[in-house]
Design goal:
Elements lengths: L11 H8 L17 E2 L5 H4 L24 E10 L2 E3 L18 H4 L1 H5 L9 E7 L6 H7 L2 H18 L3 E5 L13 H17 L4 E7 L3 H5 L3 H7 L2 E5 L31 H10 L7 E6 L1 E7 L11 E3 L6 E3 H10 L5 E5 L4 E6 L2 E4 L3 H13 L4 E5 L16 H11 L4 H9 L5
Parallel strand pairs: 1-15, 2-4, 4-5, 5-6, 6-7, 7-8, 8-15
Antiparallel strand pairs: 2-3, 9-10, 9-11, 9-14, 12-13, 13-14
Helix pairs in contact: 6-7, 12-13
Length: 428
């Protein structure tokens, strides 16, 4: 099964800029590293798999060639209760995990996670706090109280130091939204980040945040310029634009550009990046988010199977599906599925009967990586490592999506040649 995409013409100015530099994001010493970032949030139940399977996390990944790659890996997404990291089932005694500063390193996988640095001396391992399941209530309570803000900043820095982490990632989804969010969350978040920055800097630790990408978050949740002053990089969650969990029509998980007829010109990757850059975030601190998973739908009528077609819920593949599952399914049932490439949104979708799936393939992920390079962004971010084809079942290569991202990010000097060579490969 092959898919071909229409190539975009690279503006002359962008082409010159892209070919004049080989560094997309610096890790420690400017001009010496080329990381790709992976989404934070490895849950504790995934941490035990770190030595045998890829972590479900954000972070940077070594490309396997010494000196060629550097990584930030925020993972082990933990909660925050009463200003202290909530280690949950990792706690050392029952009933009051919120009062415990440590948890059980062996049981929680901290040691295995930090031990990844033994395989890559340039790796920066970070602990991530938050995630969708963590909600808003606890964060809002912490940042709204002067004492809790200060104590939590000290506690988080001590936790990172104790376990050998190189920094902290804050994944609050989202200030000023959900649960019992407060209208003061936006301002208080900046104050808290400033205190975290102060405490973490004592140990030369990194600080990053994961943010909702939609333009509406700028007004409700984020003081963009002030956040950028306090963090080393911003993980931009440019995905989940459309899903059967909140819509009754088909749509793309992560459309790169606006399609003709789209009501909101900013409801796509390019639109979100433009809005954030216009709000003053330094482009070198922005990591472009890329999903390694798709969303499925069940069509109301299989004869109406385009973008925006009516649906009745998630497809049989369930709500969210990894690329590994999708590519194997399309390979095994190649004669049954129709794969359509959208030359406007620069993403594919697949249909079979009443099943409809929006996903990323090697071509679309390459387009997103090229976009990051062409716009001189800080780097790339993916969710999540174990969603890629890490066993190499589809193309006889492990991590095919991540491999294409690394090719683009690490070797952007050869942008035009690479664009030609990557377009001329079989893709699913």
């Amino acid at each position: 099964m092959q898919v071909r995409g229409k190539q975009r013409e690279i503006p002359e100015k962008t082409r010159r800029q892209a070919s004049s530099t080989s560094t997309i994001l610096t890790c420690e010493n400017p001009g010496t590293t080329r990381p790709v970032a992976i989404e934070p949030g490895t849950p504790w139940w995934e941490a035990s798999r770190l030595t045998s399977q890829p972590p479900r996390s954000r972070g940077a990944v070594d490309n396997g060639k010494k000196g060629q790659g550097c990584a930030h890996v925020p993972g082990l997404g933990l909660g925050l209760t009463k200003g202290r990291i909530n280690t949950g089932r990792c706690a050392t005694r029952r009933g009051d995990s919120s009062s415990l500063p440590i948890g059980r390193p062996k049981r929680c996988g901290y040691r295995k996670f930090v031990a990844l640095k033994e395989k890559n001396a340039d790796l920066k391992v970070m602990v991530s706090i938050g995630g969708w399941a963590a909600g808003t209530t606890n964060f809002s309570a912490v940042v709204s109280d002067d004492d809790l803000r200060s104590r939590s900043a000290e506690h988080i820095a001590s936790f990172a130091l104790l376990h050998g982490f190189d920094g902290v990632d804050i994944d609050w989804e989202y200030p000023g939204k959900r649960d019992n969010a407060s209208s003061t969350d936006k301002a208080n978040f900046v104050i808290w980040l400033g205190l975290l920055r102060q405490e973490l800097s004592k140990h030369d630790f990194l600080l990053s945040v994961a943010v909702g990408a939609n333009r509406s978050f700028i007004e409700s949740s984020y003081d963009v310029q002030q956040i950028a002053k306090n963090v080393d990089f911003i993980t931009f969650m440019t995905y989940d634009f459309h899903s059967s969990s909140f819509e009754n029509k088909t749509g793309y998980n992560a459309p790169l550009f606006q399609r003709p007829g789209d009501e909101d010109a900013f409801y796509n990757v390019d639109g979100c990046v433009s809005a954030w850059l216009d709000s003053g975030v330094p482009r070198t601190k922005l990591l472009l988010g890329m999903p390694l998973y798709g969303h499925s739908y069940e069509l109301a009528d299989e004869s109406e199977a385009g973008v925006g077609a009516p649906t009745v819920g998630p497809g049989p593949a369930n709500l969210s599906t990894s690329f590994s599952q999708i590519c194997q399914m399309l390979k095994k049932e190649a004669c049954d599925w129709s794969v359509i490439w959208d030359e406007y949104a620069m993403v594919p979708y697949a249909t079979k009967g009443k099943s409809w799936i929006s996903y990323e393939d090697r071509l679309s992920i390459t387009e997103k990586a090229l976009y990051a390079v062409e716009h001189n962004l800080g780097g790339a971010s993916v969710w999540a490592l174990d969603a890629d084809d890490f066993a190499g079942n589809c193309f006889n290569i492990k991590y095919p999506l991540l491999t294409n991202i690394l090719r683009v990010i690490n070797y952007n000097k050869y942008l035009e040649y690479r664009r030609f060579s990557l377009y001329n490969t079989d893709t699913i």
